[in-house]
Write a structure and sequence with these properties.
Aminopeptidase; eight-stranded mixed sheet; binds N~2~-sulfamoyl-L-arginine; binds zinc ion; Peptidase M14 domain-containing protein
């Protein structure tokens, strides 16, 4: 059964979402997105205290990289807090809608859960047409400056294969649709990952220059990091993604550069544990990270 302080199966996650939507129909609705490559049904959780108000939207996704289990756990914890905290309606949900896609890559996620030797799988599970290999790095598959840096063109590369073309994967296409359908109201996009406790903003495809709005991106990120630190968590390393290392085709650059989302980030929630995040730490770190999301919400509410 689903436990908010555990790494749950995709099936248990789906069941949790259905139950939560039934329990809080005035707050949480699920939008069917279609199916993953292997046929898993994907759902977007929309949390709003006033869906007809046309509020600014914060869109958060997680788990595009299969092995980064703490990311879906955080997305689900966020849903849990936003729908169960009695005061969320007066604070986090006031004037802002939260759209959350907790597992972007469910096929990869289930593959990493299937046995120990698959635990470090990163990519999707689509079959390549030009080879016997499987999977595309979803975070190299988005159609903005696709494949110009930090990618492999080899379908058998286990880490950074960008795919045969932009948006070759049904999973990245779904995220694109969410962004495009909500482009006007979408003010903040955060993609949750797990590596090195970084909070990075565009550009990711190059480290040679920054967007002209970089100071706003930087200062919102610093307010998030400060909030996590105040709650007892480790601070984030804040910079542009490309200053960390240049890699094109990420969802953060797509949201910012192609969709025009004013604030766009990749948030690496490692807390010192990279891919194999100890389950025992979840009750400590998820509430600390949650304070960072409150800071994100406060920043968006203030500006829009
Ligand atoms: O390489 C990635 O996709 C991300 N790091 S991870 O270790 N989780 O794989 C960082 C992505 C940062 N954004 C861009 N480079 N666009
Ligand atoms: Zn990742």
């Amino acid at each position: 059964a689903f436990n908010v302080y555990d790494f749950n199966s995709f099936a248990a996650i789906q069941e949790y979402l259905e139950t939560a939507a039934r329990r809080h129909p005035q707050l949480l609705t699920l939008q069917n997105l279609g199916t993953s490559y292997q046929g898993r049904r994907m759902k977007l959780a929309k949390i709003s205290s006033d869906p007809s108000a046309g509020n600014p939207i914060i869109f958060i996704d997680a788990g595009i990289h299969a092995r980064e289990w703490v990311a879906p756990a955080m997305a689900l914890y966020l849903i849990h807090r936003l729908t169960n905290d009695p005061d969320a309606i007066h604070n986090e949900l006031k004037g802002v809608d939260w759209y959350i896609l907790p597992v972007v890559n469910p096929d990869g996620y289930e593959f990493t859960r299937s046995n120990k030797s698959n635990r470090l799988w990163r990519k999707t599970r689509s079959k390549s047409k030009s080879s016997d290999c499987f999977g595309v790095d979803g975070n190299r598959n988005y159609g903005f400056k696709w494949a110009v840096s930090g990618v492999s063109n080899n379908p058998c590369d286990k880490e950074t294969y960008a795919g045969p073309k932009p948006f070759s994967e049904p999973e990245t296409l779904m995220v694109r649709s969410i962004m495009m359908e909500n482009a006007k109201r979408l003010k903040l996009y955060v993609s949750l990952h797990s590596y090195g406790q970084y909070l990075v903003y565009p550009w990711g495809y190059t480290g040679e220059f920054l967007p002209k709005q970089w100071k706003k991106l930087d200062s919102l990120a610093r307010s998030v990091s400060d909030a996590v630190q105040r709650a007892g968590g480790k601070p984030f390393k804040v910079m542009s993604a490309g200053k960390w290392y240049a890699a094109a085709g990420g969802s953060d650059d797509y949201a910012f550069g192609a969709v025009g989302v004013p604030y766009s980030y990749t948030m690496e929630l490692t807390s010192g544990h990279e891919f194999i995040f100890p389950r025992a730490l979840l009750p400590t770190v998820l509430p600390q990270f949650y304070e960072g999301f409150k800071a994100f919400g406060a920043g968006i509410r203030k500006e829009f």
